[in-house]
Design goal:
Length: about 325
């Protein structure tokens, strides 16, 4: 791979993939609809000579084709809001796949784990799909679209991430907790503080995703992007307080609390049906990655949290 385009480049996952690609000397086109955000991304990389950007609409495959016509791989990191998933996710999938198919390109689709539904303690890429939520069922339709027989020239693969955190993270379950701690304010924690869960550090995820994308035989398959292990909310808060010195109250939000808040907040209303994820300590098996790609990057949680919180505190003080 000598060149790539990152769709949704200014999002949490998009930013770390841009960085990882540049670190490997790969020419990168950052694609998005906000010129100000794309310019800021370029500035963050000190106007790196191998980084350019193109404005476009993820739902308009023609703009993707125009931007991606000279690249080797397309990284699809754009997403839709929870409340728009039912109406927009399949349209997004259709658009990016139409572009990849027209160009005959490899395309890496970044996705989550909703398709599995209730999960066993540890699952590999063959874990059965038993989605019991609206989002899970839509995500399963999305995968069927990506790997559909209508595409004759596109070469897709899907990478699946658990919940995540990192300096570029924007919409993870941990985000309001870490932002509150970094700002030395009272904050919330979504879910049960005692449940041990898996989180992947986004820079680690980017390394794994690009490693997978560089292998020709990775395409046509699903790939797990596992984290560094399980950790509870109590442990996360303890580490965060050690780093920041913040001792302010952190309020755990149960399903009933979120359901009540959802009466006034459309985003929180959409979280209710996937609260099962905060109670089930599901682990993504990395056996396939280790066997076919290599060792899994595992930044220690304390180190990753330190980088994340320092970034948040810097932004808070700017």
């Amino acid at each position: 791979m000598k060149s790539a385009i990152v769709l949704g480049a200014t999002g949490g996952t998009g930013q770390v993939i841009v960085s990882e690609l540049l670190n490997r000397g790969i020419e990168v086109i950052a694609f998005g609809r906000s010129q100000s955000k794309l310019r800021a991304l370029k500035a963050e990389h000190d106007n790196h000579p191998k980084l350019t950007y193109k404005l476009g609409d993820i739902f308009d495959y023609q703009t993707i084709i125009e931007a991606a016509k000279d690249v080797d791989v397309i990284f699809q990191c754009a997403n839709v809001k929870y409340q728009e998933m039912k109406t927009k996710l399949l349209l997004l999938g259709e658009s990016v796949m139409m572009a990849a198919d027209t160009l005959g390109r490899k395309i890496v689709i970044v996705d989550g784990i909703y398709v599995y539904g209730h999960q066993v303690a540890k699952g590999d890429e063959n874990h059965p799909y038993q989605p019991h939520t609206k989002k899970g069922k839509i995500r399963m339709e999305f995968e069927q679209l990506i790997f559909g027989t209508k595409w004759k020239r596109a070469k897709p693969l899907i990478v699946r991430l658990p919940d995540y955190y990192g300096p570029t993270s924007q919409n993870s379950y941990l985000q309001p907790t870490l932002e509150g701690i970094a700002a030395d304010k009272i904050s919330i924690f979504i879910g049960n503080l005692r449940t041990s869960r898996e989180y992947v550090y986004l820079p680690d995820a980017a390394k794994m995703i690009v490693n997978i994308a560089e292998k020709d035989d990775s395409y046509g398959e699903n790939w797990n992007i596992p984290g560094a292990g399980l950790i509870s909310g109590k442990e996360i808060i303890k580490i965060a307080r050690q780093i920041t010195g913040n001792k302010k109250l952190i309020i755990p939000l149960t399903k009933n609390a979120i359901r009540f808040i959802g009466l006034f907040d459309v985003f929180m209303r959409e979280i209710v049906e996937i609260m099962y994820l905060t109670k089930e300590g599901f682990i993504l098996s990395g056996e396939k990655y280790e066997k076919r790609i290599g060792p899994i990057p595992k930044t220690p949680f304390k180190e990753g949290m330190e980088q994340t919180l320092q970034t948040l505190m810097y932004k808070e003080n700017c």
